[in-house]
Write a structure and sequence with these properties.
dUTP diphosphatase activity; 1 helix; mainly beta; 11 strands; 4-stranded antiparallel β-sheet
Length: 153
């Protein structure tokens, strides 16, 4: 098993001969690949509406020490109020279904999603699977149990 090989499958017959829906890095320095809307016609996402958009692809990571995160595209969120309905998508290494993007229009205006629009991004990250050591007490730290806002604003 090559630990960095991710299997990809095209689910839409039109895509098999056309790479326009293939995830791509926008720039040489991009950390994440853009995911595109695999739709036949435009979809109007009304204000406050949530809709599932197909990508037309499925992936199989296989390596349990790698996961994929689906993240919003910053420009869509900042300029248009379009974010992920679940905020972040987590793709487990053994998932093989279609990547579907839950888009939420938190803005005040309707938003048009066109075929092949870049709607989200996917990044692959390493996973640490810890072993747990059951204890009765922790060694006390400076922070101890201080939570939200403990270090000031």
């Amino acid at each position: 098993m090559n630990t960095n090989k991710i299997q990809i499958k095209f689910l839409n017959s039109d895509m098999k001969n056309n790479n326009i829906f293939f995830p791509e890095y926008a720039t040489p320095g991009s950390s994440a690949l853009d995911l595109k809307a695999c739709i036949n016609k435009k979809i109007i996402l009304s204000s406050k509406e949530v809709v599932l958009i197909p990508t037309g692809i499925s992936i199989y990571i296989e390596n349990p020490y790698i996961t994929a995160l689906i993240l919003p595209r910053s420009g869509l969120g900042h300029k248009n109020g379009i974010v992920l309905g679940n905020l972040v998508g987590l793709i487990d290494s053994d998932y093989q279904g279609e990547l579907m993007i839950s888009l939420w229009n938190r803005g005040r205006k309707d938003f048009c999603i066109n075929p092949n629009d870049r709607i989200a991004q996917i990044v692959f990250v390493p996973i640490i699977r810890p072993e747990f050591d059951i204890v009765k007490k922790f060694k006390k730290t400076i922070r101890f149990q201080s939570g939200f806002g403990h270090s000031g604003i």
